[in-house]
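Ligand: flavin mononucleotide. Inputs:
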Amino acid sequence: MIDQQEEFKKALGNYPTGVTVVTTFDQENNPVGLTVNSFASVSLEPLLILWSIDKKSKSLGIFTSADQFAVNILASDQAKLCFLFSSKEVDRFTQCEWQRSEKNLPIVKNIASVLECENVQQIEAGDHVILIGKVIHIIHTDKAPLLYHQRSVGEIPKTFYQTN
Ligand SMILES: Cc1cc2nc3c(=O)[nH]c(=O)nc-3n(C[C@H](O)[C@H](O)[C@H](O)COP(=O)(O)O)c2cc1C
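Predicted complex:
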């Protein structure tokens, strides 16, 4: 079983993704957020996305009980935020620039895109909980995204071919 888990980690580690910071406010109105690469698009009608949170995550209860959350898609020059929001024992929001959005969510500044979502559905799946968000507001820029691959982050490589 351990061998299977190692193979799983290697296979998934070789599947590049973007990097997001998912944020919300807790019940005391403190901003909360963590680095997430499990984010994926789900549906166009209605607009739905998903991400999954580890049941060991400190912010599990905050996100499962939040009415809404924001998916902040990091830009290629925001690797520091990827590390900041995955580091333990640091005051994440005093070390980055952020603002409260009109939808009342903490939004990281200078981000590539933001999807503000209602927290509409949750599915327990093994050691994670899948959160499904209905997108209620989108902020989009043309900034290049930050990519994650085999425990490294960086920019889109120069050789990159368009699909049909
Ligand atoms: C690139 C990257 C992607 C990550 N993706 C996820 C994820 O999808 N879900 C998750 O629960 N943790 C993910 N993590 C780990 C969390 O960011 C990390 O455990 C964080 O400290 C959890 O914060 P919390 O314990 O304050 O909730 C990721 C970390 C990195 C570096």
